[in-house]
Design brief:
This protein folds into 2 domains: 5-212, Rossmann fold; 231-518, no CATH class. Helices cover 37% and strands 24% of the residues. It has 18 helices and 20 strands. The strands form 4 sheets. A 6-stranded antiparallel β-barrel has the order 12-13-18-17-16-19. Strands 2-1-3-4-5 form a 5-stranded parallel β-sheet, sandwiched between helices. Helix 7 (179-186) runs antiparallel to helix 9 (198-212) and helix 10 (231-240) crosses helix 16. The chain is globular and about 75 Å long. Residues 1-44 have low confidence and may be disordered.
């Protein structure tokens, strides 16, 4: 699930470079040569090879806390493979590598490199929100920005979108799960080595990305007629709705797209969780266990407490006359305000035609309310997307999803109960979502009176163990390159719903006075 930049300002991320290297990477530096001493490694090579510095933007060589990809993830073998693979495949270039957690370390690297004859930089976003590439881009030298997928993808999308919007002239990028695509992009540094300009380098990375991307596939989809409400009925249903936003403080009720939003504290939910009937909780937990295709590393006790959280949310919704709830789940769980993840409860609520939404994201929750009202029950799926040009896909990743994507009366799809991915704790869910159908992805933004919109054909469920559990892959309808351009203005979350909702979404936007922004 999403972490904003405010959640990565931990002590680890604020360490200066000397302390970071000593505390986190001394062993791997000695064993693998990932880090190179500025005293002897930055000298120009006599054979004329161009020297490229690889900078891995991450918290630590082995991840100390919960975040994408997951707690305890060991980046060292990954970095070793990248270093060795590039050295083998790009013999005309010399590579040195460093680690950086943020701008201070990045600046120190730049300062040290002033006398090191570095010709260009490869910045690899390994964790999502470490701000390294921004500093490196100020060097004016050619910079290749790469996404370690299901690790750095959120920051990569947001930061690269800002570069594209502001017209950064020296930053090219690669967002591919295929190592050969990284190699092709890195080889573009050869243009500069042979006297080409930085602009030519960036253009070459764009050509390499396009050349290695598959052609558009067959976008014909399985028929899926959607019964939608009229625009006026949808607006009326939205006004009849109510969102509970659960966090550390209560605030007066506000409106978002005409939907009342009541912000409340964790206390009421936690008290309802404590009061949940244990026999009823066990019955819900046993139903989940029976219906799941598999249950991995989740105890009966954890299932019971997760079921109690579901019953607590239902009770609080009923008390407040609400049909939607969104909880600061990560902050609540790590802060000891709640004692069970709400993931399975969100799943159950969405299956029932209600709304359970992650991370106290009110904008996405309101979007889910609109979609469920419009489609008469189809759930929205909130996600942290990843883009993979190797497969021409956008992957919608989160640790929870409905398994009744066609509505409460529709068919079910298989699901697995697993731990929450980032910390390997609690209970969450991998929903194996139906393929071959058209999906519609939107975000409503009242502050700008805009609706972000794209569509895609569901083509795969990615089982990768890194990052969030549910990963629906779709081939976007339209220009996948355009999909890289909006993340800095809209943030990482998107909400996806099954069905061709283009006409009713456009009609709803017009009735609200909103502009539709087609991001693909």
């Amino acid at each position: 699930m999403t972490r904003g930049e405010s959640m990565t300002g931990c002590a680890c991320c604020r360490m200066n470079r000397r302390r970071f290297l000593a505390a986190g990477c001394a062993a791997c530096a000695g064993a693998t040569g990932l880090l190179t001493s500025p005293d002897n490694a930055f000298a120009a090579r006599a054979d004329g090879k161009m020297k490229i510095r690889i900078i891995y933007a991450l918290h630590a060589a082995q991840q100390p806390g919960p975040d994408w990809p997951n707690k305890g993830f060991d980046f060292r073998p990954v970095m070793e493979r990248i270093n060795a693979g590039l050295a083998k495949e790009c013999p005309g270039l010399e590579f040195v590598s460093s680690l950086a957690t943020g701008p201070e370390q990045a600046q120190k690297i730049l300062d040290e490199d002033k006398s090191a004859n570095i010709g260009g930089y490869l910045v690899y976003q390994m964790n999502a929100w470490n701000r390294v590439v921004q500093t490196i881009a100020t060097s004016g030298k050619p910079v290749l920005y790469a996404d370690f997928q299901y690790g750095g993808s959120g920051g990569f999308l947001v930061y690269m979108a800002e570069f594209l919007r502001k017209g950064a002239a020296n930053v090219g990028f690669v967002a591919s799960s295929r190592f050969a695509d990284l190699v092709a992009a890195v080889r573009c540094f050869e243009l500069v080595r042979k006297g080409g300009s930085v602009a030519e380098f960036v253009a070459a990375t764009t050509r390499a990305r396009a050349a290695n991307m598959p052609e558009a596939g067959d976008l014909a989809c399985t028929p899926d007629p959607v019964k939608v409400l009229s625009t006026q009925d949808c607006l009326a249903r939205m006004k009849e709705s109510r969102i509970l936003a659960v966090t550390t403080e209560a605030r007066p009720t506000t409106l978002r797209m005409g939907i009342p939003v009541e912000q409340m504290t964790f206390v009421e939910v936690n008290e309802a969780w404590k009061a949940a009937d244990k026999d009823e909780s066990r019955a819900v937990a046993n139903r989940w266990r029976k219906n799941a295709a598999t249950v991995l590393d989740v105890s009966q006790e954890t299932l019971d407490t997760s079921a109690a959280m579901y019953l607590a949310m239902k009770a609080v919704l009923k008390k407040h006359g609400a049909n939607a709830i969104t909880i600061n789940c990560l902050g609540g769980f790590y802060g000891g305000h709640i004692h069970a993840y709400p993931c399975l409860g969100f799943h159950e609520l969405c299956n029932e035609g209600l709304i359970g939404a992650c991370e106290c994201d009110v904008r996405s929750t309101a979007t889910m309310v609109a979609l469920t009202a419009l489609t008469q029950g189809r759930p929205g799926y909130i996600s942290d997307p990843v883009i993979d040009t190797a497969k021409r896909q956008i992957i919608y990743a989160h640790c929870v999803a409905s398994n009744k994507v066609f509505g409460p009366q529709g068919p079910t799809n298989p699901f697995a109960i697993m731990t929450h991915s980032e910390d390997r704790q609690g209970a969450s869910l991998r929903s194996i979502l139906p393929l071959g159908y058209l999906t519609t992805t939107v975000e409503f933004e009242p502050a700008r009176q805009e609706v972000l919109f794209h569509q895609g054909k569901a083509v795969a469920n990615d089982p990768d163990d890194r990052a969030c559990r549910t990963k629906l892959a779709a081939e976007p309808v339209g220009d996948i390159e355009k999909l890289f351009t909006r993340w800095d203005q809209w943030g990482w979350h998107r909400v996806t719903c099954y069905g061709d909702l283009k006409e009713p979404i456009f009609a709803l936007a017009e009735a609200l006075g909103y502009k539709v922004v087609e991001e693909a």
